[in-house]
């Protein structure tokens, strides 16, 4: 057997090319809370040479968790972007996302601009509820799984992999597996490294120097040989189901010998399967002990897509799209066209408003004119920067595939989360070169904000503080669109709404301590909505000066039933409401548009009217309207010489409100948020927890399962259940314990649908019922009509 050798994963000193798109990786770290996302990110930054020391979540000195609330609580609240290099020539743009369900919008908007994901799993807890949630949110994005915390007591690699196969409906490619040492007959095995299945080596990390790794080749006389042969055979068999080239190589060149296939050939095949979402590469480690992170970074480069290999954004026009290794994505054969999406806004104490963007095609230059195709605004962009968490590096341009930040006062006034940015990279031509209307109308898929489920009243301490309060709230919701502010017209009360109790608690803390708002924040209450049961009468407006509109408000289900190709549907950005523009002859804007005002500006004006009218609320309790549609009839017209949208805004707002006022009180229904809840309890506590859920909480129980018992899941795809049974996995004591344990030691998982109003302060109640042993996770499911027995109580309280 060869003598072991030491390898130093060299820390990068060279700058990766910013013009070779194939050398870029835009990745996100996603996982359940406390799986180790930020800890893993800190090690990635250190081993890449980006930082000189390793930050610690418990000590509050991490790079990506830089907000005071993040460091004091030890959790990630907002996504943070950072750029670093690996293997000298590759650039990685990494976004560390939150794991708590209250901050799911941070995950949603980050995934919009990412090409690949690293999903981190806790080897002790396995596949947890929020992991399933973020996995479904990242549908269609190639992923790598990193099974973390292999050094913990109760860690189960094979059990976690089996859960991954069945719960996530994915095949797995075991790139490495854990290696343990056994110091004595009575001691627990110690996790010390990994068996690299592709390169046929064992990697052991040294305790004295985190950068040195002991590498030992696995030969036929090694104690790991038999395990490696079985793992290689399983890996090649799975790859062969998709990759015919590998099958041909295996039969003709390797002569049917699984061990004879070179690592490069396997890596190439794993990459093909990963990019096609046929299977998920799986690695393991213990980030806190600095084990397994360097192979994970290698896997990011080898198995996740570059921008030219990633899924293309869904443009709203059928313009030709080409992909070039040098230019990236090229739209409409126009190499001067730049299209980018704004996905995040923050407020920097020095630079002011900063807007994160992902450039999809072309080059975005500082100081050049740009066009916001979402709002129709034209302005000049200021300086461009690349962010390293909260540290900015100024650059002259952002190339295709890159993630960067727009700065400048004009940016803060003209760009919001989800907007599409159009630019031209030739300064002398500016926007005038974009003479094709379809290019100016390009939009990337909108970032849909989930509806809030909790609200809190906010009032200034004195009347003189109201303006300062409004400015602080506006700054808060500019950064976090999942927060929403509304004002009750009758009482004048301001309500701040969010995704959960913790979400609002963080918002309150930021208002008081970061934005120095002198306000009083009330108790957290449920965010109810109203909806229509019937359509409003058709409202018509005709005037001699050329205005003609027919507008009707409908329940969403009514509009959906009659939906056809002659309608344009525009999402209203909240509460599942839409604007429907019926297409008329004058919609042929490319050839014979008869008005001075662009069509998009007219639509935006009517959208603004819809938002104002729906926010006024219904007749039952003035809750904002939900699941409603404003329909504009096809025969509308405006004066040809009109040069302002203000009259359109006023007319449409008045018509919508008039239509809503003509609907009787009884034809409005109250809606309440319903949550999917997963409660994990010991068997001896299950009875009283179930009684409380079905009684006090009005829950609808969906299922009761044994934790880790993947065979008990009713919703699993039987194909993947069979794949899990046939997948070769190394021995795992926790798998046996999960299957043979009995009595009160078994953890039970209760899944239910619960009105969110019954879940306020549920944490303390569950702790009391289970003596602190129970835990729960909940996520938004949808809005449902309040039942008759609960309606009087809700109306009385509000």
Describe the structure.
This protein is an alpha+beta fold. It has four domains: 5-303, Rossmann fold, CATH 3.40.50.300; 321-440, Beta Barrel (Elongation Factor Tu (Ef-tu), domain 3), CATH 2.40.30.10; 454-526, Alpha-Beta Plaits, CATH 3.30.70; 535-662, Ribosomal Protein S5, domain 2. It is 27% helix and 29% strand. It contains 22 helices and 38 strands. The strands form eight sheets. An eight-stranded antiparallel β-sheet has the order 19-18-24-15-16-23-20-21. The protein has a seven-stranded mixed β-sheet with strand order 3-4-2-5-6-12-7, sandwiched between helices. A hairpin with a 2-residue loop joins β20 and β21 (391-395). α5 runs antiparallel to α19 (718-726) and α16 (599-616) packs parallel to α17. The radius of gyration is 28 Å and the shape is globular. Mean pLDDT is 83; it is low at 427-435, 710-716 and 737-745. Mitochondrial GTPase that mediates the disassembly of ribosomes from messenger RNA at the termination of mitochondrial protein biosynthesis. Not involved in the GTP-dependent ribosomal translocation step during translation elongation. This is Ribosome-releasing factor 2, mitochondrial. It is found in: Mitochondrion. Keywords: GTP-binding, Mitochondrion, Nucleotide-binding, Protein biosynthesis. InterPro entries: EF-G-like_DII (IPR053905), EFG2 (IPR030851), EFG_II (IPR041095), EFG_III (IPR009022), EFG_III/V (IPR035647), EFG_V (IPR035649), EFG_V-like (IPR000640), G_TR_CS (IPR031157).
């Amino acid at each position: 057997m060869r003598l072991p050798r030491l390898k130093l994963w060299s820390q990068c000193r060279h700058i990766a090319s910013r013009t070779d798109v194939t050398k870029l990786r835009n990745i996100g770290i996603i996982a359940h809370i406390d799986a180790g996302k930020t800890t893993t990110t800190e090690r990635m930054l250190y081993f890449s040479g980006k930082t000189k020391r390793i930050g610690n979540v418990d000590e509050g000195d991490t790079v990506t968790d830089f907000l005071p609330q993040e460091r004091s609580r030890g959790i990630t609240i907002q996504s943070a972007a950072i750029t670093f290099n690996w293997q000298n020539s590759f650039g990685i743009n990494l976004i560390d996302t939150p794991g708590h369900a209250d901050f799911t919008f941070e995950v949603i908007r980050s995934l919009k601009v990412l090409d690949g994901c690293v999903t981190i799993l806790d080897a002790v807890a396995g596949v947890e509820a929020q992991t399933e949630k973020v996995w479904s949110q990242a549908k269609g994005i190639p992923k790598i799984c990193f099974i973390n915390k292999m050094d913990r007591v109760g860690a189960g690699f094979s059990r976690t992999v089996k859960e991954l196969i069945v719960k996530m409906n994915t095949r797995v490619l075991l790139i490495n597996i854990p290696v343990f040492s056994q110091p004595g007959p009575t001691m627990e095995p110690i996790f010390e490294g990994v068996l690299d299945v592709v390169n046929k080596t064992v990697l052991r990390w040294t305790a004295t120097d985190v950068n040195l790794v002991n590498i030992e080749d696995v030969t036929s006389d090694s104690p790991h040989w038999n395990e490696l042969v079985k793992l290689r055979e399983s890996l090649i068999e799975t790859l062969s189901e998709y990759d015919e080239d590998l099958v041909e190589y295996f039969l003709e060149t390797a002569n049917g010998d699984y061990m004879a296939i070179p690592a490069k050939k396997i890596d190439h095949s794993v990459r093909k399967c990963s990019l096609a979402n046929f299977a998920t590469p799986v690695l393991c480690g213990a980030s806190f002990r600095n084990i397994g992170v360097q192979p994970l970074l290698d896997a990011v480069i080898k198995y996740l897509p570059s921008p030219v290999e990633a899924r293309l954004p869904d443009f709203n026009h059928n313009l030709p799209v080409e992909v070039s290794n040098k230019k990236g994505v090229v739209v409409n054969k126009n190499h001067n066209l730049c299209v980018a999406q704004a996905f995040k806004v923050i407020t920097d104490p020095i630079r002011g408003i900063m807007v994160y963007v992902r450039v999809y095609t072309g080059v975005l230059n500082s100081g050049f004119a740009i066009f916001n195709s979402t709002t129709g605004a034209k302005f000049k962009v200021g300086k461009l920067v690349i962010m390293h968490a909260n540290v900015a590096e100024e650059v002259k341009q952002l190339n295709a595939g890159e993630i960067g930040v727009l700065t400048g006062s004009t940016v803060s006034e003209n760009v919001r989360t989800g907007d599409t940015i159009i630019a031209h990279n030739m300064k002398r031509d500016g926007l005038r070169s974009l003479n094709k209307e379809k290019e100016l109308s390009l939009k990337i898929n909108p970032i849909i904000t989930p509806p809030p489920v909790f609200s809190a009243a906010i009032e200034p301490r004195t009347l003189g503080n109201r303006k300062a309060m409004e400015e602080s709230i506006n700054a808060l919701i500019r950064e976090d669109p999942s927060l929403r502010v509304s004002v009750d017209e009758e009482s004048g009360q301001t309500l701040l709404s969010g995704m959960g109790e913790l979400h609002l608690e963080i918002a309150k803390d930021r208002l008081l301590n970061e934005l120095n708002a002198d306000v009083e924040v009330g108790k957290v209450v449920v965010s109810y909505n109203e909806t229509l049961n019937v359509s409003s009468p058709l409202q018509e407006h005709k005037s001699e000066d050329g205005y003609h509109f027919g507008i009707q408000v409908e329940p969403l289900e009514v509009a959906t039933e009659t939906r056809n190709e002659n309608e344009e549907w525009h999402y209203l950005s909240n509460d599942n409401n839409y604007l429907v523009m019926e297409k008329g002859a004058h919609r042929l804007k490319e050839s014979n548009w008869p008005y001075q005002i662009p069509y998009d500006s007219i639509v935006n004006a009517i959208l603004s009217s819809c938002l104002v009218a729906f926010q006024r609320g219904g007749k039952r309790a003035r809750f904002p309207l939900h699941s409603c549609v404003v329909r504009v009839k096809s025969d509308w017209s405006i004066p040809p010489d009109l040069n302002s949208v203000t009259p359109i805004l006023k007319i449409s707002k008045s018509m919508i409100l008039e239509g809503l006022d003509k609907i009787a009180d009884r034809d409005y229904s109250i809606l309440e948020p319903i949550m999917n809840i997963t409660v994990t309890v010991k068997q001896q506590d299950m009875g009283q927890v179930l009684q409380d859920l079905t009684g006090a909480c009005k829950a609808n129980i969906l299922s009761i399962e044994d934790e880790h018992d993947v065979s008990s899941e009713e919703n699993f795809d039987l194909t993947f259940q069979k794949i899990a049974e046939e997948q070769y996995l190394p021995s795992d004591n926790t798998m046996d314990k999960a299957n043979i344990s009995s009595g009160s030691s078994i953890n039970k998982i209760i899944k239910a649908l619960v009105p969110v109003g019954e879940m306020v302060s549920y944490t303390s109640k569950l702790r009391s019922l289970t003596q602190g042993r129970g835990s729960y996770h909940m996520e938004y499911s949808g809005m449902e009509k309040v039942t008759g027995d609960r309606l009087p109580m809700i109306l009385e309280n509000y």
